[in-house]
Amino acid sequence: MDLVIKNGTIITATDTYKADIAVEDGKIIMIGKNITQTEGAKLVDASGKYVLPGAIDAHTHLEMPFGGTTSADSYEAGTRAAACGGVTTVFDFVIQRKGQGLIEAVEGRRTICDPQACVDYSFHTAITDLTPEILEEMKESVEYGVPSFKLFMVYKKEGLMVDDGVLAKALEKSKDIGALIAVHAENPDLIDMRIEKFLSEGKTSAWYHYLSRPEFVEAEANKRAIHWAKAFDAPLYIVHLANKEGLEEVTKARNEGYEIYAETCPQYLHFTNEVYKREDGRNFVCSPPIKGKESQEALWKGILNGSIQTVATDHCPFQSYEKDWGKDDFTKIPNGCMGIENLYPYMLSEANKGRISFNKVVEVCSTNVAKIFGCAPQKGTIAAGSDADIVIYDPNKKFVVSKENMHSDVDHTIWEGIELKGYPVMTFSRGKLVYKDGQFLGTPGHGQFIKCKGRK
Ligand code: DUC
Ligand code: ZN
Ligand code: ZN
């Protein structure tokens, strides 16, 4: 054995109990009482601490060309920050360029990720060009280990958007081959119409980013995507759900027995649309935008009652000077916010303050992600045979988020000044200590590509 973690309280999605954990060759080999450390094994005393599975961020955009620039965190910086926030697996988006094959796109991205990744990673592929050949290649991608595909229902000008015909085809195909279709759901025509109106009226502040894509703009697309998923009886995963009405449709479809999943993000749970009235409102510009209080409350309820299955970040940061491009015109603000290092600490702090249970946080930030995207039980839990992706959490540690104590390459954070109750003190990635007490201790290249299983 290489490592023993003793005297901690293990928290999984379903259980909370005191036990020791033995790790060998990157795997958990034993969980039990009074495990004796063999010679040469490292000992970690977790007395008074919680021992959790590492979080799995189901939604990141690392070094992604977008908004006239490239998102500010490279794979190295993003996965370094991930490790320091207790995230041990990252699902990033591969964007298929027009005319590009799916496996070609994934392999191209792997060559960039492999030398940089500090924690394990996997992919969803965003299909932007669904030719008959690509439709056939989806099956190969499932077999390759990338069984999830994202379709953008917006971003026409950026060349990412697909129409309903493509969505329908992909959903129909996904059912046959055991793939999962994910959607970014907003209505592009409504957005364009509203942007044109606001700009013509000289309404250019970040508040009009929100007003150009308010609750009903997202809800319409949620409903449309769910309608198609139901029509083809195909599973559907709605990324970054941020509004109440859309969530109600998810709940309804789930109650009818359809396999519809919803993900939300910490920025929608903590902030409201009021942030867009702030002087630095542009820093919070992401799409879908952060909604009003009623939606925020509905999202928390959705997590508690199981209508929302995952919480992930949509980590897509831009530097201040890039956000400043839109100081006088919200349409020029690159869309995206940071959160990869804040996801688990924020959600765990909410548990520590009594809003939800720790088990629920583990469920939505780790276990459900692994199950939905096909890497359980290797990932997403603390069990014999699983990867030793482990976070040691000190429930008594106070932490105030600041740009200075974050580990990404971005020069600001929307989480500045947020006070957290409790904080991760160690992160292990396959048994290797990659973070301790504020210090990143990992190495680029340690992270491995995780092949996911399809649904068949
Ligand atoms: N939304 C964002 O805010 N950024 C990246 C892509 C997305 O859909
Ligand atoms: Zn999106
Ligand atoms: Zn996204």
What does this structure look like?
The chain is an alpha/beta fold. The chain folds into two domains: 3-52 and 379-440, Urease, subunit C, domain 1 (Roll), CATH 2.30.40; 54-373, TIM Barrel, CATH 3.20.20. The chain has 13 helices and 19 strands. The strands form three sheets. Strands 1, 2, 3, 4, 5, 16, 17, 18 and 19 form a nine-stranded mixed sheet that branches. It has an eight-stranded parallel sheet with strand order 6-9-10-11-12-13-14-15. Strands 7-8 form a two-stranded antiparallel sheet. The protein is globular, with a radius of gyration of 21 Å. It starts with a strand and ends in a 16-residue tail after the last strand. The model has no long low-confidence stretch (mean pLDDT 98). The protein binds dihydropyrimidine-2,4(1H,3H)-dione and zinc ion (ZN) (2 copies). Residues 61, 66, 184, 286-287, 314, 316, 335-336 line the site of dihydropyrimidine-2,4(1H,3H)-dione (DUC).
